Amino acid sequence: MPGTSIARWTRPAQPRARLVCLPWAGGGAGPFREWRHLVPPDTELLAVRWPGRESRLDDPPPADLAAAVSGLADDLHALPDLPTVLFGHCSGGLLAFELVRELRRRGGELPGRLVVASCEAPGRLTGPRPIGDLRTELAGNGVTDPRILGDPDLLAVLAPPVLADLALSRSYAYESEPPLPVPVTVVATEEDLAATPARWTDWQRETTRPLRLAGVRARQLFPNGAWSELAGLVSEELPCPRR
Known about the structure:
The chain is α/β, with parallel strands linked by helices and 243 residues long. The chain has a single domain, classed as Rossmann fold. Helix content is 32%, strand content 16%. It contains eight helices and seven strands. It has a seven-stranded mixed sheet, sandwiched between helices. Helix 1 (65-77) crosses helix 2 (91-105). The N and C termini lie far apart (37 Å). This is Thioesterase involved in non-ribosomal peptide synthesis. Belongs to the thioesterase family.
């Protein structure tokens, strides 16, 4: 399908809930496959696979953030109705937030909860932010294998999707809308929560429901860090599994 593609990592016979995961800049659907044994067994686990990576290497990127969000809204609308939680990691959290806004504008069914990890409140992003040196950007995300940073050939393969994703997220400029009637959970490292609390607590402005903050005792929340713990925190926001 043009614009986005959704990987389905679990297929329960009688799904009770759906978890849709949006990756960080340059990330793919693959890392969320590890969560298939960590979410409740009656949860349908889906992950967004953006163009330019994994099985979509030759697909062109979305024209802009609005196009990316609109395409994903179309994809979700085509799915059977099911109680849904959206999870976005870093820039994926920003896209997940704008996706909920787009669903509201369309008058569609809203997710039961929005969960974001390592994603500061969108209201703090009032204008475009510059993209730094690619090696610096990749080294700072905590997930890129250091061997890739020193290999020009591997960097050349990785650069296009990373730069395309960064161009989308760094061009974002917040526009005020009424807060969402959807509860929001923000996950960050305990260090980040303590050092820059407003980056996370400002999410309260985007929801009419009480904000939940969850701290993780880890240096970062990527697959080579507290990935299983993050899956557990996200699973807590899903409907309880059948007893």
